[in-house]
Amino acid sequence: MSMFQDFLKSGESNERRCDTPEALEKRRCSEKNIFNPEPSVDPLKDAELQNKKENVVQLRPQNLNLKLRVGVPETFTVTFKRAEGYPIDLYYLMDLSYSMQDDLEKIKTLGQEILNTLMRVTNKVRIGFGCFVDKVGMPYVSTVKAKLANPCPSRLDTCQPAFSFRNVLRLTEDAREFREQVSKQIISGNLDSPEGGFDAMMQVAVCQDEIGWGNVTRILVYTSDDTFHMAGDGRLAGIYQPNDGKCHLNRYGLYDKGNEYATMTFYYHDYPSVGHLSRVLSANNIQLIFAVTEKSVPAYKALSELIPQSVVGELKNDSSNVVQLISEAYGNLSSTVLLEHLEAPQGLNISFKSHCGNGEPSDWKKSGKCNNVKIEQQVSFTVSVTASTCLSKKELFFVKVQGIRDQLKVNVETLCACNCGDREEGSPSCNGNGNLECGVCSCNKGHLGQKCECQRQGARNTTLTMEALCRREKDSQLCSGQGICECGTCVCRGHFRGNFCECDDSSCGRHNNKICNGQGICDCGTCKCHANYIGPTCECSTKTDKCTNKDNVLCNNHGDCECNRCKCHAGFIHDFCTELVAPCKTYQKCVTCTVNNELKAGDVGNCTKECGSAKLVHIQEPTQFYSNAQHMCSSNTLTRTFTHPIGAIDMTALVLGSSVSGVVLIGIAIIIIYRVLLEVYDRREYRRFLLEQQNVQWKENQNPLFKDATTTVFNPLHSEY
């Protein structure tokens, strides 16, 4: 940016101060007057990657400052190495609907086995337990009093009342306590197939203190044998309030967002949406394992694609393979490294390039990803940040690996303001209504304009809005580059005029070295011609006086009058198209043929082809001509004069027209005769039809094969009295 006060020309906006250093120097701005801040990446905390028990560092760097120029990308490198033996918190969330009865009996004995399996990959494991059914209300759960108390399908079985979610056991290292608490659980039941697992997962994620999550690897194991309710399903029970994503567990560990109505809890909040649940799980670094039965695997695989750091495993009907499933799923989760950014402000474009140690880096993508990463294997990512607009203040965003608490804190600011150190308050260059800094006026309240010369008229009245009034198009120059913008009005230079100085009354075309041929007025680059003149430069007269001869014939019938000048047809010349071009050369064959025939037989009738409509005549005085249509030509020693009649009849057209007319007339006559004969024939045939109709006689005869449909039977024993 140029800091020189008198750098701008009259009418130029302050934006013209900003350009490349090379372009500014070409416009005679010295290097000392150019302010060109450099973007930078400054690490504030960059601890080495380490796997010490008291201080585990898996992501590097941890904090940096980023200074950006608008439109100029800046890059930095992020390195990650998964620590060996990193502690694990595992929360087991189980569906307690009636169909999971055999699974509950199995899981009561598997707590110690789960701990032992995870201890093979880490030195410290904690395990917790929670369960869910569904919202207590129709149509999810029967509200009949007896069914509320015992929702089992059969009255011979005993079930606990339905509930949305219960935190049974906080995360603990005690496998014995896990077994005791799970053993106390009793199966429950509901009406519809989908379960309320989304409500349960949301509470597990947001109730940090109640669940007891630590700053370690967090794993949530979700087990069910059916699908799930999601946002919008709450309307079936008249619930319209969206899920607020907050913790609502009471002192008994129950999800308690509702009020007691008789013996039924009516929940005010709908189920979470998939996107909402995904964001909450990611923000709380929770990795999700879906352990579901075979029939539900497709639905949960589709769900897993929408939730980062989640996997699906097929659970046997009695959950006997749950330990193996958790072990395999954890291996899959830990081998995938997914780097993303969080809370980035608007105006920043962030992309990642992954270096996974397997050859070429990936293309630029919205997130970084490496698969099949082993423990203690180091991978790196290049992060590119570009500002598309100036940020109003210093902003903050984070870069983190999903499922890991380590994160990189990035402080970012844009270098849009100038710090030239030459501030002049109440500067005369700003009409005393502002301060001059870096060659630009910063106006006091109530004033605006390039030199603070304008009064502010309203809250929305700014320099930009005023300058917009001086631009014909959004991207055009102020006042078309031909004037200066003063308080939203263009003041034009010289002969320019118009609201945007867009009109130049000297820019019209010239003819005969005169603007508009001296026969019109130049109006904003367009000629407005006087009467009897047309054309872009008024060069064409509409009069015909210079095209008409003394006989008042226009161009002698052998040309067209254009701009009061005859434009002759082919073969004719001069002002009124009265003369032929090279007449003797044109009719040389005619003269030769006629002379030869006269010498031989005195007959000129055989030269029609060569002469056409031209006639040769004898003249006594060759120097005497009677009209421009007569021409004297000679052949050998003879001299003849031929006449080319102007406007002669074209015999070919006459013969052709006569022939066509004759054919048409004959055709019409034939049609008339045919119609007369056809009418006579039709009348004769109609009379014959009438005569035959009069001679027709109709007779009635009985069909010998006909039998009457009525049969009469008399009773022989019947006697009449």
Automatic annotation (TrEMBL):
CC terms in the record's Gene Ontology section: cell surface; focal adhesion; integrin complex
GO biological process, alphabetically ordered: cell adhesion mediated by integrin; cell-cell adhesion; cell-matrix adhesion; integrin-mediated signaling pathway; leukocyte migration
SMART domains attached to this UniProt entry: INB, Integrin_b_cyt
InterPro entries: EGF_integrin_1, EGF_integrin_2, Integrin_bsu, Integrin_bsu_cyt_dom, Integrin_bsu_VWA, Integrin_dom_sf, Integrin_I-EGF_CS, vWFA_dom_sf
Keyword Acyltransferase: no
Location of this chain's protein in the cell: Cell membrane
PANTHER family linked: INTEGRIN BETA SUBUNIT, INTEGRIN BETA-7
Protein name, as recorded: Integrin beta
Organism: Scleropages formosus (Asian bonytongue)
Underlying gene: itgb7
